[in-house]
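S1.2 Input.
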Amino acid sequence: MLIEKAGYAQFYIHEPVKDRKMLVENRNYLTPQQEKMMATQPDMILQFAHHISNTFKDSIIIERNGEIINLGKSPKVTADIKVSLFNKGSRSFIDNNINLTGEKRGFSNKSWILTYED
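S1.3 Output.
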């Protein structure tokens, strides 16, 4: 094994008016093995964020107080992801303020991935 890494990922879907966020349960969409692999792979993180956005597009949430929230055509998705390399403690892996729905796949630099410094 060349690298030992572990990760933990929480994704949030945001409502467009007040930018309130709702936690997405990863286990509702991924197997435990998929969740484990996704948490440390930027391409899989982005793919899952886009999947969440597509799943929730045009959804309507009705709050207990009767407030109706329309998530719109392209709901904002953010994530709080922690990664540990070589068992040296967890660090933030991506910028949790970035709307991952707006990020594109490809080989260019990803400004939403944070540097992992010792």
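S1.4 Remarks. Residues 2 and 15 are 41 Å apart (CA to CA).
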